[in-house]
Write a structure and sequence with these properties.
This protein has 304 residues and is mostly helical. The chain has 13 helices and no strands.
Amino acid sequence: MQKTANVAVPARPRARPGWSARLGPYLYVLPAALFVTVFMLYPMVATLIQSFTDDNGLNKANFIGLGNYESFFTDPNSLNSFKNTLLWVIGAVTLPVGLGFSFALLLERLPGAAFFKSSVFLPYTISGTVAAILFGYVLDADNGILNSALRAIGLGALTHRWLFEAPQNTWSMIAAYTWQATGTNLMIFLIGLQGLPREPLEAAKIDGASGWTYTSKILIPMLRPFLTINILMAAINGFKAFDLIWVMTQGGPARSSETLAVTMYRESFVLFKQGYGASIAVIISVVALVFSYGYLQSTFKKES
């Protein structure tokens, strides 16, 4: 019986996709790329260029090189605002993050803690302007709730003009920010705690870990990603603190409570020195980026 030979059929070449198919993926990305270019990259480049000019928003801008930056580092008001910004970063990182972590540890184990969680988180749902107005009444020197309460319990010697003495005015506003921002830190830490694997936690307790040892050696390392998020967000919020300060003191008295963001706004839109204000915006961005990069690098090294 004669065998039939197997004849290999040559594969048909695959048709190359048309130009519309090749451009399809880029069309999906195009809206996002345009958004980033128009609303992020272009303003960044324009602000950087403007920082080298004497632009005042009215006359033709002239190139002055590093003149604005030299003025910043020789201006006592700008240096004071830089110091206040550092105080804001320190306060925004230590107080809301520390309280949020502490409350998370307490409320995770507390039965019926939903009311307390909502109470701590509720201030975050209001705007910074509303929080500033509220604490303006609380910290008023004459009829404020805080001073009135101190007088009522016989501690009148502890009353102060909370918003009129530096650096006390800055710390008073940081306290108002802490009241508003602790809730979001609490919720992020609670999410982290609820997602932790229970086996290593129970094993640590069986081995005798408790108290600060359990928290520092077990919980904090396991919660490091959430801690990194909260610290980074708090530091960035400290660098750009503006609305609460502007409503409560407008940077006063005598510009003693200004931060870099408030100084940038005053120089750009009150004094119409927009070139100088742009240089302050560049300085804020550079300092925040350097801090963020350094902090993330140190965090990644610890994790590795």
